[in-house]
Design brief:
Length: 224
Amino acid sequence: MKYLIDTANIEAIRYLNEYYPVAGVTTNPTLIAKENGDFWEIVKEIRNIIGPEKMLHIQTVQKTAEKIVDEALLVKQTLGGNFYAKIPICEESLKATKMLKELGIGVTMTAIFTPAQALMAAKAGADFVAPYVNRLDNTISDGVKVVEYIVEQFKNYNLDCQVLAASFTNAEQVHKCAVAGCHSVTIAPKIFESLIAHPMTEAAIEGFERDWEAVYGNKTIMDF
């Protein structure tokens, strides 16, 4: 399982990259626009924070295959490193995916809502597909079940494509995707802490501190 940060907020990325075992960052036009800054300044700083080896998934905003490819090439040449062009699933993006793969550029097909879309993207050569878990749940569908079906499809046909599940609102959804065999997830900053927080853990830590201080006071192991 790989954890990616789903944001373009520089301070959040800096913090999470320091404390958590993250494999990279994903962005999209909405997340970039939310920061209300210069596009290149934002993405260059993200690359600077995470370094060249971690994944950086940046979504194109063009609508034709040729222009999608041109835009992805520009981003790749400017940022370098482990880069994936994010492209929403459609006919033009399928064509663009085949073109980008011939140029050696990684592709993440996003806005996936069905196993059929995921399979088509994988067959076109996408490295990742990004199903939207919570958005599916909000349409009276089962987002985790869709992830499970996609994972099973890729296993059945031995496809070299991974599931990068997205659109989460809570840790339970992330957990269920992990159990379903999802290869990676991209999650909002606020969800990271909830993945490790538990009231019983907090109680255990408080108990350890209380018992130690009852005998040794403020001493630490380094004081002995």
